[in-house]
Amino acid sequence: DMGAVADYFAAAPDAAAGFAAYADGLPMLKGLTGESILAEMDANRDAFRLQGLAPQLAGKSVLVIGGDKDTDVPVDMIIRPLIAAYEAEPGVDLTGTILSGDHSFSWSRAELIATVLDWAEGCR
Hints:
Blueprint: H1 2-11, H2 13-24, H3 34-43, E1 61-67, H4 75-88, E2 93-99, H5 109-122
Helix pairs in contact: 1-2, 2-3
């Protein structure tokens, strides 16, 4: 949710500077700079909010999974607000869950797989 990340960076300039420096060193971002990425996120924060997609998801089955130890996609900043927004939207068939796990679900991949398979089976 780049909208939430833009809010975070606006309130934490040191974190924004760290991200910009990190992005400047990524060769796959040829032609982009950390500064330009931050500027785009700031300029488009409302358009980049995943919560804003909720009305477009009416009639769809949506799965949102977060890891309680994920520092890249923090559950309190991104996952819980996303789950709340989708739960509040009529017509969105949401399955939202927080598993014990880091960003790659290192110790809980079997549970992650089972959760995804159960959700997919229910979509049939």
